[in-house]
Amino acid sequence: MFQRFPIITHFFLAVGLTLAGLYVGNLAGGLGGYVYERHRVFASLDREQGRDIRTLNESLLASTLSHIMTKNTKESLQSDLSNLQKLRLKAPPDALPLLDLRMAADHASLARLYQSTNDSANAIAQREMARPLLRELGWTDTSDEVLNQVADKRFRPLNSKISSKGAK
To answer: Taking the model in full, what pTM does it have?
Structure first.
C-alpha cells in the first residue's frame, strides 16, 4: 500500500522525523537550562557548601518520600525507622532535627500499635526510645499522653484527606 503512494509516505516520514527532532531539541534545551541555572545558583558557593546543600536536599527528599510511603502498620513503621536511621548517618547536621522528629513520631506510633495489641512491654520500649529524641529537640513534656498525641498526628493528614474525599 505504501509503495503506491510514495509522496504521502515520505511526507509522513518527514513530519515524524521533524517532530522527533523538536522533542529531542526541547528536552536538550530544558536540560541545558536546568544545568545552567543550577550552576548559576551554586556558583557563589564553594565546592563543600554546594555538596552540603545537595546532601541536605537529598536527605529531606528521601525523608519526605519515606513519610509518604509509610503506612500505619508495625512492619511499615519498623521499615521506616530503619530507613531513617540509615539516612541519619549520611544526613548533614541541618537535617538531623527533622529526622529525629520523624523517628520519634514513628516510635510513638509503634507504641500506640503495640498498646492496641496488648503488647505493653514493646509499647513501653518504643515510648522510651521516642522520649530522648524529643527531649533532644527541646520538648519538656514527653508523657504517654503527649506521645499518644504525636502518634495520632503522625497519620492525621493522610486520614483527613481520605475522609474528606469520601465526604464529597
So the answer is: 0.62
